[in-house]
Amino acid sequence: MPRVLAIDLGTKRTGLAVTDPLQIVANPLETIETGQLMLFLKAYCAKEEVEALVLGLPTRLNGEDNEMTPKVLKLKGELEKVFPDKKIALVDERFTSKTAMQSMIAMGSKKKDRREKAGNLDKVSAAIILQSYLEQK
């Protein structure tokens, strides 16, 4: 069964998460520089069977767009062109960073590890987005 890959787009870094082959569990995958996202996705999809790409859709608490919303929607359009055979889905990502931080604390992550936002928080946020998508399916 093909995997599902989630993307938590950031201005500098992007967190990625992927399901297991049975699409039961979402696992943090990688945090990459946002400018390298398309190269990474093309390489990853060439070596792994991916059924869908899930994008976290950032909005304000009241549901209105924030400064990242247009960037995510633009990326969605680019992904649809580059990967026409894959489903591209949007998932509400409000509170994912806060939930990711709470999850890291609950798992016993040290304060130093949580400070390394460049890696841990972004990919854990992507995993939360992906788990939300799996639960909606």
TrEMBL record:
Residues annotated as domain YqgF/RNase H-like: 2-100
Uppermost EC category: hydrolase
EC number: 3.1.-.-
One Pfam family recorded for the sequence: RuvX
Subcellular location: Cytoplasm
Cross-referenced SUPFAM superfamilies: Ribonuclease H-like
Keywords linked to the UniProt accession: Cytoplasm, Hydrolase, Nuclease, Ribosome biogenesis
Function: Could be a nuclease involved in processing of the 5'-end of pre-16S rRNA.
Protein family per UniProt: Belongs to the YqgF HJR family.
Name the UniProt record assigns to this protein: Putative pre-16S rRNA nuclease
